[in-house]
Write a structure and sequence with these properties.
It is a single chain. It is built from 7 helices and 7 strands. Strands 4-3-2-1-5-6-7 form a 7-stranded parallel beta sheet, with helices on both faces. The model has no long low-confidence stretch (mean pLDDT 94). The protein has a single domain, classed as Rossmann fold. The N and C termini lie close together (8 Å). With 179 residues, the protein is an alpha/beta fold. 44% of the residues lie in helices and 18% in strands.
Length: 179
């Protein structure tokens, strides 16, 4: 099945490594070139903004989903023409998951990890069977991957996590897996 809409979860900050921003931009360009629409949190800053900017420059489609509280911070991307405003973070995540065919996780903070683990949990519970890709840009998620392996080894996971989460080194590999 061709992925038509990809949820991208990532930081609203750019991080300290310039490679994160470069990969976010490359991802957006590849999405537009492969006619994969972006479904994301609607932000205009950090890696989120970089992916959206690249999709827009490539003529791609975008759906942004942002909670009212972030509108008050003026954090929304002003170039997104399909920006859906929801009441809270829970409603945002639910709509993002419903709108996408697959999810990709770039480097990010607490919110990004929250989205990753909720997608994984829902996949384990068979609430959805969507592909989930972790873009381990420059080894950003190495410690997390090691911890997930520990959870498996210590008997806290119901199945091998690699059946549900695909780890890719860069945007090229991730898009190649998804198309």
């Amino acid at each position: 099945m061709k992925i038509k809409k990809l949820a991208v979860f990532c930081g609203s900050k750019s991080g300290n490594n310039p490679l994160y921003l470069a990969e976010a931009t490359k991802l957006g360009k590849l999405m537009a070139a492969n006619e994969i629409g972006l479904v994301y949190g609607g932000g205009g800053k950090g890696l989120m903004g970089a992916v959206a900017d690249a999709v827009i420059l490539g003529g791609g489609n975008i759906i942004g989903v942002i909670p009212k509280i972030l509108l008050e911070w003026e954090a929304q991307h002003t170039g997104v023409n399909d920006l859906r405003v929801v009441n809270d973070m829970h409603e945002r995540k639910k709509l993002l998951y419903e709108l996408c065919d697959a999810a990709l996780i770039l480097p990010g903070g607490n919110g990004t990890l929250d989205e990753l683990f909720e997608m994984l949990t829902w996949n384990t519970l068979k609430i959805h069977s969507k592909k989930i890709v972790l873009l381990n840009c420059d080894g950003y998620y190495n410690h997390l991957i090691a911890h997930i392996n520990t959870m498996l080894e210590e008997g806290f996971l119901y199945a091998d996590w690699q059946e549900r989460l695909i780890v890719c080194a860069d945007a090229d590999e991730a898009i190649a897996f998804l198309v």
